[in-house]
Amino acid sequence: MTRNLFLKLCVGTALLTTASMVHAAEHEVKMLNAGTDGIMVFEPGYLKIAPGDTVNFVATDTGHNAVSEVTPDGSKWEVGFDGGKVKFEQEGVNIYYCLPHKSMAMVGVIQVGQAVNKDDAMKQADTLEAGFAMNQGRLKQYMAQVK
Ligand SMILES: [Cu+2]
C-alpha cells in the first residue's frame, strides 16, 4: 500500500466515524397489553438514548397512549392511541404514562444523555408509585437503572 492511499483510507474512516456519531438514532417502544414486565406495559420500560434521538411509540396492542409526566425542562409531550414519534433534544429523565392504565403502573422512563434532573425525577417517581393500584415497584425498578 502506498503512503498516499493509506492516508486516504485514514481520512475516509475518520469521516465515516464522525458521520455515524452525529447521526441521530431511532428507538422503538412497544405499547403492550402484556410484556416481560407484566401486563399493561411499555417495552422497553427503561430506555437510554442520546440527545437528538427519536423514540417511535408503536401501538402494538390497541388502547394505549403515552403522556409525559416528568420532563427535564417541564415541557409536555404526548403520543396518541395510534402511536407516534417523539424527538428528544433535552438531556435528562422523562417519565411518562398511558392515560387509561396509569393506575396499573403503565409507565416508562426515557433517559436522554445525562440524568440532569435525577433527584427531582426520583421524588416524582415516588409520588407516582404511591398512586399505583397494581404493578407496584415497576417504576422503582426502571428508575434504579437511571445513572
Ligand atoms: Cu395502556
Write the layout of secondary structure elements.
Blueprint: H1 3-22, E1 26-35, E2 38-43, E3 46-49, E4 54-58, E5 66-70, E6 78-79, E7 84-87, E8 92-97, E9 107-112, H2 118-130, H3 138-143
Parallel strand pairs: 1-4, 3-9
Antiparallel strand pairs: 1-2, 4-7, 5-6, 5-8, 8-9
Characterization of the model:
It is found in: Periplasm. One of its GO terms (molecular function) is copper ion binding. Its cofactor is Cu cation. One of its GO terms (cellular component) is periplasmic space. It holds the Pfam family Copper-bind. By secondary structure, the chain is of the alpha+beta class. It has one domain: Immunoglobulin-like, CATH 2.60.40.420. 27% of the residues lie in helices and 33% in strands. The chain is built from 3 helices and 9 strands. The strands form 2 sheets. It has a 5-stranded mixed sheet. It has a 4-stranded mixed sheet with strand order 2-1-4-7, with no helix packed on it. The mean pLDDT is 91. Copper (II) ion (CU) binds next to loops.
Write down how many β-strands occur, each being a DSSP E stretch of 2 or more residues: 9
Total helices: the number is: 3
Q: What is Rg?
A: 19 Å
Unreliable segments of 5+ consecutive residues: none
- β-strand percent reads 25-35%
- CATH homologous superfamily title: Cupredoxins -  blue copper proteins
Heteromolecules bound: copper (II) ion
Q: What form results from the Cα inertia axes?
A: globular
Largest sheet data: 5 strands, mixed
